[in-house]
């Protein structure tokens, strides 16, 4: 029966398992980077008492526990070997013993004083070890019930730290755990509190002495090393390790902690859960790290992240503090951002000519070092040969145009007002600050965006794709070389390809504007991930061409063909063709259909159009579709006004076109339609910064604030207000004061005022 | 023992209860508004099988269940009477029976073919009623274990719909349930599936016939009415009731459903969980509503809201669809927004003079109807007598100024470009769209903001505080009366005080910009709540005055006094005084301290300042404090550059001042410091739209995009690009094309071009 039961248990545990991951990493040394954690096969999750209980009320945090169980079961079913070190028996037992005592007390008290006095009863202080003993069975039953829901078997292990000092016991424990893991069972380990010495009398949880948490920390670290775990995840109610006491002005959560940096940490003493308790946790973590196990300390009680804290860590996301022995050569992305901001401030204080010189220097470098760039590009392209050819020469020409337009971007006076005698106000253009540009494979984006940032005096973080890593690296080196001529090398930083876009979008307060350059999927993803940081970019381009009944045949055919077929994947390509009803059975309409057929455009019919036809093309699923291909929807409208209504309802306020010879109709359309770009007798494809003559294009914005439509350099600028007085106060202008407001508009000087270099 | 056990159970259930809410509503008719749901005493929560199971895998959704239990227990502990109708026994039993069958199968199979073939085993189809019977005990045990964590007792009730047809059974059930509620026990009710007829063979959950969900819906409705519940919350995996099949272009989730509107609903048929299954749910809901129980149908499976879906509903928040018999007189806030947008478009197309006329008409009305306004204001003020006096006269003067500045706001041409021959581009100012202004008590905000919206051609939703409801109502009537003179009455809407700010902030895609006017707490709350809608407003004003060693004594004293004491609660008041080190032991420094003492300003010392003193004032907790009172921090810096660094590190980029006689130092400070407002020898209190001469002030923005610092009318405008051609296409400019780009800047005409009225 031994063979039978083992086999059966094992099969039960494995039942809904996905095909196991190819995880075969040999244990020996810890992982160097968070992204390596995806390779972790054997993982020990330690749940501190703060995670398992609900804090003040001492019941178990059931929801939290359930989601932790769900994540552990999921990882187990991926083929990983999961172990849990849990707290919580004390809390569970306390709840239970309290009931028992209350029950007997209440009966006694009720006999004395009636039944309404129960609330005031003082609660007895319960002994932690007794609580633990009483709670252990219930806690395990709960874990088992929960894991059963995920078809995962569990096993209970009770140990004390002393067990590790006895070699025979250690060997026994080790072999038991290995046997359980082999059978796909999740061991749930707890300290055998009933046989440990009485706890020190610091009552943390109300009215209950707590088993010193140090025990569970060092127990988890010991077990992790003993079992050669790849990763120890220690969850408690702290976010991780800070560089100074949390709550102080400068405290920063450390994303990664290197043991060599230990002197840079200030341990506080006051807080219960702060850095005080942290010292023991860090000691245990360092001990595990030395033993070859990677460690992440994270908050398991944060309601927003608890549901995926463990899986996020295993996916390499920036949660809590990761302990690594291998310090990377370069700075962290946070340090890069700081460096960029600081150098960016110097860049902004340069003379416009100096910024122009930097851009020209970059243009020169692109042609001089062409061969180097092209060979790097070739290296990148080998895996996927059909990428676009990269032309440093064309890039260089574009850059020189940006250099020209950079002359009057920063420090331009937009408004001057004499507020009162000797009190003058100026509104001047200034850079936005630190930009984060995230771009997909095409590396020609890098020099362009760099030139735009330099021209507008902004600091820049660049995040490119892995596919163009070599090209991006050399292009970034050239940008820094150009910046060096005026000592602002660090203003442009290339972010490591290891960094997750999602993590970068969380650098609130460090980054002022995010600009995604790539597919609309990329834009949407980033808009979703960027909390609190503005994103400049269009998410959808559902552009319309409306052909009025007074349209010219030639213009209509030309414009529709160009709007749809010139580059169907572009955001400014036509998606819906609106046709005035009177055109329906005219030669113009047939010509349009013929042209679309010749161009192989697949036609979908809007509901109204379909109702006019005997045999109609497939009806559209939604009038809000962005096909991005040689496909379009045709719909019929009764009038220009109905066309406007249709576009307001189904469009994305990107670019919409009217084709008509009637100027009145056209002007009404242009006035009434609320889109970023409204065109009369011109292709929607003109909605583009270069075609608009804005010089370089930052992007196309469908937002309604800051910048709208094609965005040029101006979109990378904001303003500041400069007021120069002679000791003026608001009180001077009060009823008792001696001054009055003049608010006189002054002419805006052509020379940039008040600009000096900082050197 | 009967008395004893009842008493004990009751006391156990009540143990950690908060003091019960004063809920004493007599049942009889359902609630009219969501906000009334806070009064619901007896609540029945119905958990559909989609909520209790994990969907495809058929295990229980433990995390979800745990959070539902937590919410129910919390409400129970508030003194409400909670009941649960649950599904899930089938799923629980299936999981269990599968194990049993698998176990025996696996042994047999292993004997035949070795142990690696288990994965391919076909699973037997299990009979739903058997699953239910097998699962019932486990499910109840789980509920009990979970509720025990919240010190809440549960009881199991199994019923069938037939039980309701037998009067005696009904009476028995009724009295049992009442007895349980009286004892503070949560009854958990399920259908007695073992004795119901075999289910129809539609296998919804993989491989298991499901007990028709209709049973549980009508069971819950019956029970709710029978038990005179105030509220039935029916949770499943649909968001609620839509006005047309979900997923179609126009489908809108109904916030509130009135039985009279039933014809306006389109029921689809295809989807399992869509509107098809909805019909039965709606029928049950209407039945309960007729019986006097309010109903909310909501999604209990949405990971982001499950943790508070029940408590949110009971707090009156807009979750799912609320069934109400009392249709409110006015339109819903969604309808108001639509009306405002539509009328706003007409407002934007008026001539500037017409918008000006509307504002002047409003100004006239304010003086003409002064008495009416003041008497409404008096009514509002009675409860809290120390409110500010309201002056329609002053307001009226301010409005006339806005009327003047409105003349050249909308339709101003900012840029004209000849893109090519006969292809001309204009960038013109247009309104942003629909503004939502949320303001705290001061009702004088309403006419001001209305005038600003009219001047900029924007539609406006106004949300004021309850404290000024009467004044706001009359002021809004006057605004609409003024708007009527050009037929755009609906462009300004006053939102009912019933609407929660949080719900309004969710009206993404309907509202383009939110402007909070009030405390910085209000601004912060709204910035947090507004997902996807931009918010214009400052959240913090940590302003600095830096006194250089070359400062004039008189100017320094004057500016510091004004910056701190003129209005300490203002966001542009000084919070930190930075002093050059060389000043420390000079008479100027003593004079500053004397002045601050005379003005009763409490001084806190920065760490560096403290280190210079033998006896220092209390050291600051944080250098980032906004005191908003007669308090400030003093810190010492070694140089202007150090002052700039300090402000960059601890400031909020609002307004910062240098006091010096050295022009070079001043200009460097003005250039280097990256704040919205940088002043030289002038009080920080000048950072204000009116004082800057911007006419009316929309607010002060500390954002870095769109608008920065004091925002005037321009902050309520965006732009659009108008292109007029003669059939131009992008292809005309290609290498094979006949045209070339000119990109010639044209002078901007003073007359507004292309503007016609739509009438």
TrEMBL record, chains A, B:
Domain Aldehyde dehydrogenase: 332-608
Known EC number: 2.7.2.11, 1.2.1.41
Transmembrane recorded as keyword: no
SUPFAM superfamilies: ALDH-like, Carbamate kinase-like
Molecular-function annotations in GO: ATP binding; glutamate 5-kinase activity; glutamate-5-semialdehyde dehydrogenase activity
InterPro entries: AceGlu_kinase-like_sf, Ald_DH/histidinol_DH, Ald_DH_C, Ald_DH_N, Aldehyde_DH_dom, Asp/Glu/Uridylate_kinase, G-glutamylP_reductase_CS, G5K_ProBA
A Pfam family matched in the record: Aldedh
Catalytic activity: L-glutamate 5-semialdehyde + phosphate + NADP(+) = L-glutamyl 5-phosphate + NADPH + H(+); L-glutamate + ATP = L-glutamyl 5-phosphate + ADP
Location in or out of the cell: Mitochondrion matrix
Pathway of action: Amino-acid biosynthesis; L-proline biosynthesis; L-glutamate 5-semialdehyde from L-glutamate: step 1/2; Amino-acid biosynthesis; L-proline biosynthesis; L-glutamate 5-semialdehyde from L-glutamate: step 2/2
Positions of the Aspartate/glutamate/uridylate kinase domain: 41-299
GO terms, biological process: L-proline biosynthetic process
Superkingdom, natural source: Eukaryota
GO CC terms of this entry: mitochondrial matrix
Keywords: Amino-acid biosynthesis, ATP-binding, Kinase, Mitochondrion, Multifunctional enzyme, NADP, Nucleotide-binding, Oxidoreductase, Proline biosynthesis, Transferase
Function: Bifunctional enzyme that converts glutamate to glutamate 5-semialdehyde, an intermediate in the biosynthesis of proline, ornithine and arginine.
HAMAP family hit by this protein: ProA (MF_00412), ProB (MF_00456)
Assembly and oligomerization: Can form homodimers/multimers.
Family: In the C-terminal section; belongs to the gamma-glutamyl phosphate reductase family. In the N-terminal section; belongs to the glutamate 5-kinase family.
Protein name (record): Delta-1-pyrroline-5-carboxylate synthase
High-level lineage: Eukaryota, Metazoa, Chordata, Craniata, Vertebrata
């Amino acid at each position: 029966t031994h063979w039978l039961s083992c086999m059966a248990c094992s099969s039960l545990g494995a039942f809904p398992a996905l095909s196991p991951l190819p995880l075969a990493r040999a244990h020996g040394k810890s992982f160097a980077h968070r992204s390596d954690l995806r390779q972790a096969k054997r993982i020990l999750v330690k749940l501190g008492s703060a995670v398992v209980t609900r804090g003040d009320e001492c019941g178990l945090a059931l929801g939290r526990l359930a989601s932790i169980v769900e994540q552990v079961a999921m990882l187990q079913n991926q083929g990983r070997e999961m172990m849990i070190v849990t707290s919580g028996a004390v809390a569970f037992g306390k709840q239970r013993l309290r009931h028992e005592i209350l029950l007997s007390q209440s009966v006694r008290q009720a006999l004395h004083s009636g039944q309404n006095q129960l609330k005031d009863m003082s609660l007895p202080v319960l002994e932690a070890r007794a609580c633990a003993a009483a709670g252990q069975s219930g806690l395990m039953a709960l874990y088992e019930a929960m894991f059963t829901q995920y078809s995962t078997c569990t096993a209970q292990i009770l140990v004390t730290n002393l067990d590790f000092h006895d070699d025979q016991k250690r060997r026994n424990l080790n072999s038991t755990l290995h046997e359980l893991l082999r059978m796909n069972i999740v061991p749930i380990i707890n300290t055998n509190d009933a046989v440990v010495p009485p706890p020190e009398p610091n009552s943390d949880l109300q009215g209950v002495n707590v088993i010193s948490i140090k025990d569970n920390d060092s127990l988890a670290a010991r077990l992790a090393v003993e079992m050669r775990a790849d990763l120890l995840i220690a969850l408690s109610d702290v976010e991780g390790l800070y560089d100074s006491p949390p709550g102080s002005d400068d405290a920063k959560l450390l994303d990664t902690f290197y043991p060599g940096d230990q002197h840079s940490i200030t341990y506080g003493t006051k807080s219960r859960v702060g850095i005080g308790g942290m010292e023991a946790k860090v000691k245990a973590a360092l001990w595990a790290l030395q033993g070859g196990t990677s460690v992440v300390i994270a908050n398991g009680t944060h309601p927003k992240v608890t549901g995926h804290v463990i899986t996020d860590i295993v996916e390499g996301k920036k949660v809590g503090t990761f302990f690594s022995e291998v310090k990377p050569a370069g700075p962290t992305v946070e340090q890069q951002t700081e460096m960029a901001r600081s150098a960016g401030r110097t860049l902004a204080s340069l003379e416009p000519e100096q910024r122009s010189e930097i851009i020209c220097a970059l243009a020169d470098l692109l042609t001089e070092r062409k061969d180097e760039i092209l060979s790097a590009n070739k290296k990148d392209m080998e895996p996927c040969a059909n990428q676009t050819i990269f032309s440093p020469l064309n890039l260089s020409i574009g850059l020189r145009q940006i250099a020209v337009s950079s002359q009057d971007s920063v420090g331009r006076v937009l408004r001057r007002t004499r507020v009162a005698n000797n009190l003058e106000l100026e509104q001047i253009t200034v850079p936005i600050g630190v930009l984060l540009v995230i771009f997909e494979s095409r590396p020609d984006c890098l020099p362009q965006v760099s030139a735009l940032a330099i021209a507008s005096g902004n600091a820049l973080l660049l995040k490119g794709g892995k596919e163009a890593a070599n090209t991006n690296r050399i292009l970034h080196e050239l940008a820094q070389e150009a910046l060096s001529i005026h000592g602002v090398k660090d203003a442009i930083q290339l972010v490591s390809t290891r960094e997750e876009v999602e993590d970068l979008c969380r650098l609130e307060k460090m980054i002022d504007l995010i600009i995604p350059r790539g597919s609309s999927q990329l834009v949407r993803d980033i808009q979703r991930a960027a909390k609190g940081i503005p994103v400049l970019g269009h998410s959808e381009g559902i552009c319309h061409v409306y052909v009025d009944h007074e349209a010219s045949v030639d213009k209509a055919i030309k414009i529709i063909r160009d709007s749809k077929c010139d580059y169907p994947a572009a955001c400014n390509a036509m998606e819906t063709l609106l046709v005035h009803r009177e055109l329906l059975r005219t030669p113009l309409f047939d010509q349009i259909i013929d042209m679309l057929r010749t161009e192989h455009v697949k036609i979908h019919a809007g509901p109204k159009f379909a109702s006019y036809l005997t045999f109609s093309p497939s009806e559209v699923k939604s009038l809000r579709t962005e096909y991005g291909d040689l496909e379009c929807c045709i719909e019929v409208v009764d009038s220009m006004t109905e066309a406007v209504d249709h576009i307001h309802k189904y469009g994305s306020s990107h670019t919409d076109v009217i084709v008509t010879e009637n100027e009145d109709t056209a002007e009404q359309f242009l006035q009434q339609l609320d889109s970023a770009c409204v065109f009369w007798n011109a292709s929607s494809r003109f909605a583009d910064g270069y075609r608009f003559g804005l010089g370089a294009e930052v992007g196309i914005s469908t937002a309604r604030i800051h910048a709208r439509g094609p965005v040029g350099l101006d979109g990378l600028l904001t303003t500041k207000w400069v007021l120069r007085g002679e000791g003026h106060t608001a009180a001077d202008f009060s009823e008792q004061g001696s001054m009055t407001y003049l608010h006189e508009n002054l002419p805006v000087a052509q020379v940039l005022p008040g600009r000096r270099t900082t050197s």
